[in-house]
Amino acid sequence: MRLSTVILPIHRWAEGQKSWRRAEDLGFHAAYTYDHLSWRSFRDGPWFGAIPTLTAAASVTQSIRLGTLVTSPNFRHPVTLAKELISLDDVSGGRVTLGIGAGGNGFDATALGQEAWTPRERADRFAEFVPLLDRLLTEDAVTQQGAFYTADEARNIPGCVQRPRLPFAVAATGPRGLKLAARHGQAWVTTGDPKLYENGTPEQSEAALRGQVEKLGKACAEIGRDVVELDKILLTGFTPEKNTVLGSVDGFVDFAGRHQELGFTEIVIHWPIPDSVFAADRDVFEKIATETVAQLG
Questions:
Q1: Does the model's pTM come out above 0.90?
Q2: Where does the chain show beta strands of DSSP type E?
Q3: What does pLDDT average to over the chain?
């Protein structure tokens, strides 16, 4: 079991860098950030770009992995994203994981002036976005004409430090997304079943997650891939337990252990933000970071 954190890009770098340095000192496997233009209750406050933030984080850390949870097509194009990711992978010395999902209908969906896409449109775009990005990160030159995305002799030399490319952690729960995870992912990401967030029970959530893992296994089997090859990442904070899993070390060990039994190999917890949905006691958070992995085995 690996334990990672997600640090929201809400502080100017003079202050924000302290969290990234501390995350490495605490021994987290990875530190991720959201790739949004703004997000929910943080919309009217400071919010910085994901790729520049991760590039800066790479310059003040040595070993911790870095990544997005998650990037989406909402305001990204595969050609420009590939160039930024290759640069970030180089600056970090090959420590980048790209969390990637289909996106939603939040603020990012309309910030560029377009109408929010329907779930089907998001799935259609995602199905084209991921394979093209895969090619762009593994081939020196790519030309492809798609329904949504086009590349014309797009050059990406020298490519990623990580070979054949940096790993994808594909966020998905539906059948089309799970097929993309099975084919292109080195990891799979979920936040659980959103329908259970407000009024569901932990038992219902675990049953839903068990079903998602089983569907991922079927998607892998369809293409002859062993599902064991994929890391399975749970981003916490969106199940019925919400952020209460950070209330005590024992409580977190119980939560993580139950989800480890479901097949999850990495748990991601939010860096505490006072007076927000991610509020948590900093001392308990740091004890969780330093004491629980050994207990989980």
A1: yes
A2: 2-6, 30-33, 65-71, 96-100, 141-145, 150-155, 168-171, 187-190, 231-235, 266-270
A3: 97
